[in-house]
ABC transporter substrate-binding protein (Paraburkholderia terrae), 285 residues
Amino acid sequence: METEKIRVMWFVPPLLALVASQDPQAIAVHADRNRSSDEQFDALVAGGVDAVVTSMDNVIGWNRRAGPRDFRVVAQIERTTPLTVVARPPLRNVQDLRGANLLVDAPDNGFVIALRAMLCDAGVASDAVRLTPAGGVKERFDALMAGQGDATLLGPPFDSMAQAAGLACIASVQDMYADFPGQGVVVRQGAANAKVAAWLRALERARQRVSESAELARQAVLAAGFPGGVAEAMIAQNPGSLRPTTEGVALLIAHRRSLGLVGADNDYWTIVDDSMVEQSMGGQK
């Protein structure tokens, strides 16, 4: 049994972490729910956490900030992150967002890049919308429900909660970008240590268990207090591998290139370090 404890931050507990927590061989996890990606960045820089679960695009943005610039994605823990543009009436499509106040986590990194790409592809100029930082997914949901913005990106369970409250789901990132990747485990290269490697081994065992038993995974999600519908959505995104997909990373870079943003000169290996995933898989390809 692993005796050390890894410190992590995430917006919502991911499926593989919930399943891994039931594994008596898994390293103990001290997890905090963060309110924004900036909070994750600050914690990693200060050494307050060993890893964060976040949008893989954040690595591109964080490595352009003043600071250590040694962030890497070491694993991808879901096939894709389901993201829906949810809007208040009377907005009904992406074109209607022209002139809207959009609630985001950060304006220049993370899932907002996919939203900005959607707007660009729909012919909505970047200066035709207002991007208002409002925090992580729960914080954006709360702000949208309070009428502090016109639309935002939400994932399960907040997208269905907003729809049940009368808001409209007007577009899906996955419908527009089939290769959009799931969240990654992000570390600083200098801090990519034995605790992170041990956690990735536990997540790989969890990934295999989910593949073998959807019911086991469902019970882990229900035990964490999530409804059955969220469990099914999470299970559907169980990845075929913890290795970040080349197609997904390429899409993130392509979005930045199409928007004229910094980071378009990145490639897979300036964003990803898959060495610990290789170890967790026993070198399997």
User: Anything to note?
Assistant: The mean pLDDT is 95. The radius of gyration is 18 Å.
